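Reply to dn_fold:

You asked what the input looked like. This is it:
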Amino acid sequence: MLQIRTDQMKELLRAAVAAANRDLCLYARARFADHFEEMPQEKLLAFVSDIRDEARAYGIVNENDVATALDLTVMYGADFYTEEWAADIFSLPNLSGDRKMEMLRWRVKSVGIDL
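and this is what came back:
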């Protein structure tokens, strides 16, 4: 029987996150071309990694939701989670990250901002 060791699982996870961060960089450059045009790749990788880590702290792990967290970070700043218009959603401990982002998208769209 084949068994995957813990160190192998950690490496697989690290590789998957690195690939997802590279994809998120591509998304960021396409979505906010002017904003990220001059940013070196390594700096952008660090930026998206920080966004992913912050999102994870709020239970946000779905890749589409992480991309939305990137959108909101660029548009409203890294502290958007604690802003008055979003804090009540992110303070609900029993809500999944998916549901939090669904509610936040609805709230942002309801005031006319397209994500």
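The helical segments are 6-31, 33-36, 41-57, 63-76, 84-90, 97-110.
Hope that clears it up.
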